[in-house]
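User: Before I run my own analysis I want an independent prediction to cross-check against. Here's the chain; please return only the structure tokens and, at the end, one sentence I can use as a sanity check.
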Amino acid sequence: MSKSLLPVVTTRRPPWNKGRLVGQKRPLQPKQVWAICARLELANKLRDLALFNLAIDSKLRGCDLVRLRVNDLAVGNTGRDRVSVVQSKTAKPAQFEVTENTREVVSQWVSSQYVHGQRYLFPSRMHALPHLSTRQYARLIREWVSAIGLDPSSSGTHSLRRTKAALIYRKTGNLGAVQLLLGHSEVDSTARYLGVELEDALSIAERIDL
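Assistant: Structure tokens:
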């Protein structure tokens, strides 16, 4: 039989997103943040605790968080209560506050043997890399959320970036302030990022009792 008359066989590949949760990852709830912190403290995982606390406080993208340098957060033995970094995505500065608890954890981490003499706050344990990679950071997040019983596919690096920003918006309704904290150039981007219209609609619906 001629090859031209043979039926065409097409290899069917499963969709890349089959069985996965895609789209925006929801922010963590305060009780979930406390649960993760408590587990990391009990396990004496100082690096992970410093990384997690800074992720919540800073509201930085993962690529900027892992590139934080020691002198960004500390001057000698004193931790900074406010930090400004240039975002790699936008090349614009973003400022964030460092809470007292986070400063204490970061100071302990900086004083440890693992950071002594290092340029980056979270040096990689792989000699080929100068600092923790975003992939390693994402893997740690999956471990943290799994440890408190959450589905790891429902959370990601942006879950931590959104957590404090979403809480600030819910408490104040000040979208402009959240825009500045996230380093967005347009307030519409912040609204889309937080899913403000959907959250507001759900909040209104919850208050209507038939």
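Sanity check: The first strand starts at residue 74 and ends at 75.
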